[in-house]
Structures are given as structure tokens and as C-alpha cells.
Design goal:
Blueprint lengths: L22 H8 L5 H7 L4 H10 L2 E5 L8 H7 L5 E5 L9 H9 L6 E5 L6 H7 L8 E5 L5 H10 L5 E7 L23 E7 L2 H10 L5 E5 L20 E5 L5 H6 L8 E5 L5 H10 L5 E5 L9 H10 L5 E5 L5 H10 L5 E5 L6 H10 L5 E5 L5 H6 L9 E5 L7 H9 L4 E5 L12 H7 L7
Parallel strand pairs: 1-2, 2-3, 3-4, 4-5, 5-6, 6-7, 7-8, 8-9, 9-10, 10-11, 11-12, 12-13, 13-14, 14-15
Helix pairs in contact: 1-3, 5-6, 6-7, 10-11, 11-12, 12-13
Length: about 450
Amino acid sequence: MYHPPSPPPRRDHVVDYANSLPNECLALIFTFLTTTNDRNISSLVSRHWLQIEAQTRTHLSLNAKSDLHPFIPSIFTRFNSLTHLVLRNADSPSSINDDDMILITSMSPNLTRLKISECEQLTDSGMAAFTKNCKELKEFSCAYCRFSDLGMFELLDNCCKLEVLHVKRSFDKPGVGARRAKFRAGGAVNTLKVIKLTNVFNERLFTPLISCCKNLKSLKLIWCGGKMGRALEKIRDGNCLAEVYLDNVNVSDVGVSSLAKCRDLIELNIKSSRCTDVGLISVAENCRALKKLYIGHYLFRNEIGDEGLIALGKHCVNLEELVLIGVNATYVSLEVIAANCQNLVRLELCHIDTITDVELMCIVEKCVALKILRIEECGVSNNGIEALGLGCPNLVNLNVIKCRKVTREVGDLLREKRGSLVVKVDAYKTTVVNPITLELVSTRSRPSENSG
């Protein structure tokens, strides 16, 4: 007997197995969505997904214009599990104010990271109020804000778990009420581990703060004018500093020599023209755990030479990365560094006329562990670069930039000889005085004397 085929099931009878998943499983799946766009799209699938996505979102970035005010309750009621919040006012003359920040932080009690930028309506009294809601805050970043020292004092007082502080574009302006306030160390000075200051001119606040932080491990001063360089002179003995980054900071040998107190210093970056052999020798003799050193300036030559670099090679034998810019290095000091620093894996020599083929041959012969080599605007020629084909067995990346005696052909030769080596040669277009020597190629193509 003929049996007609069954009709297709009605759409209202189709089972949505995704909705049958337990909330915990669906929440775990959402953790694999790494982009904001993916999470936004997934929240449109159903009400159930909308709810779970909101409950599992921990990061949120908002345009902090004053127009945000009426939407704050609905936004932070939906996203009630936030730990990281970014409030950036980029294109509006009016930002959120103190009342808005108090409401936002009261609805986000689990915040561990807060970043605010160009929120010029925030005041010292607002900082005093909303930071009391940030008991779990570990990282605070502010840029182009107008609250003064008093507001920063409130942050340090109320956020006793603060570990990272990043301040950008802060001025100690005449007439500010905080100028009459004395520095007071809040509870955060016991927990701060990282201080990063960019375009900050307020040494009144930050110099004593740096000296008070006993557990500070990383200090970065970038384009900080005024007397911010003197903050180094206030560093105490027994500190925990492992990283110091100084970029265009008015720091002298006195400040650099103060880093000799940092026995645990691992990474030091000094982009300054005022440092001399005196400061470098003091650091080298006392900071023997140093592994990464970046010293020099692209625009200005300094007075660091062989004397300071020899001390570095003698005492900092654990050195792994060395970047020298505009220093007066020669074969005398490079030989000591190459012979003693057997763990050196990265070496950059930039804007140094005294680096010639003689110095490069020293590197070829003695830097066995070297993996990355960068040579920029030095006096080396094709002959010196070509010699790298016979030395530095672990070299994987070679970058030669604007060395007047080097042509692109030497890069092709090295690639042919060492196929695994990544070579980049950015040469001048002018005619090179020293032509490339093809002796290695001819030797390679010539049959050996012992061959049958």
C-alpha cells in the first residue's frame, strides 16, 4: 500500500539545542569570543544569548561624552560583571562629570582596571567620591584630565590595591589649589608596582611618590620636563626596581648614578644626551643582574665611550640585549663585551661612525649566541657584512640600514650562503665607494683540493 511522505516539520516545532545549553556552558563558549564585534553579533541571536553575553562581558569601552549620561543606568545594569572599563572622550568639548563617574563606579564594584581620557569635567571632589567605590582597582590610567594633586591623593588613599598607575599629560600649573597641599602617602604606596608618566611636569607630586613606593618594580618617565629627572635621586636603598625607562628626561649623571641602588635592575633604557661614562660605570659596577640595556639618543650625541662600555662588559656578564645609539664605541670596548657577555642575543649599533669592519669582525668572531643584529648609519662596508656569512652561527635576523658603504647586493650574497638568515639591507641610492668582494662565491664554486 502506498504511504505518502510525511510533511516537513513545522518551524515552530524545530528544537533550538543552543537554548537548551546550561548557562554555564554558554558562558564558557562566550569566553572564546575575543573581539567586541563578535560578542555584539552573538548577542542578537536571542534574548537568552543577550543575557548571557552581557553577564560574561568583562571589558567595555565607551565614548565618555556628556550625552552618555541618560544611558548610564541601562548600560551598567546590563553589563554588571565589568572588570576593565575605558572611558574616552575624543571628539566632544563636554565630557562626563563627577556625578556620572560616581554612578558608573557604584554600579561596577568589581572594576580592577579603569582608564579615563580627556574627561575634563572631572574634579578633585569627584575623585574623592568615585574612588571610594573602586576598592578592587589595581590599574588606573588617566590622560588629559584636569584634576590636580588633591584628586591624585584621593586615589592613593582610597584604592589600597592599586598596582599600576599611568598618568599622561599632567601639569603642575600656577594657581592650582593643590599647590598649597603637602604630599601625603596613601595606602596605595604599599602596593604600587608600576608607575608610568608621559608628558608629566608635576615633580611635586611624583618625586615623593616614587621614593615612597617600597614595592615599585617598573618606573617609566617619557617626555617628562621640568625637574622630573631628580626623582631618581630620591630612590631609596633596598628598592625592588627591575625596570627603568627614561625617554627624553632631563637626567644627569647624578640621577643615573642613583640607579646603583637598584641591585635587582634587569632592564635599563636611557634616551638622554646628558649621561656620560660616570653614570654608566656606576650602574655597571652595582647592577650586575642587568640583562637589557638601551642607551643613547638619535638626535644628540652623548659622552659615553669605551670607558663606560668596558665597565659594562666586565661587570654585567649576564647581558642579553644591548642597544647603543650615538655612543663612542670602538673595538676596544666591543671586544670586552663580546668576550665576557656570552649570553648576548640582540645587538643594535646605530649612528656610530666608529663602528667599522674592524669592530664588526670582533662581533663575527666572538658573539656566538647572537641572534639579532641591527646596524644603522655606521662605518661598515660590504666586506664586513659579508664576513657575517662565516660567523655568528645562531644569527637569524640581520638588519642593515643606511650604511653608506653597503649595497643591497651583499644581502643577496648572504641569503645565498645562509638561506635561513633573514636579511634586510636598506642602502643609500648613491654609488658605494667600496665595491662588493665576491671572493666567498668564487671559493664556494671552486672544487676542493682534496676532491677526487
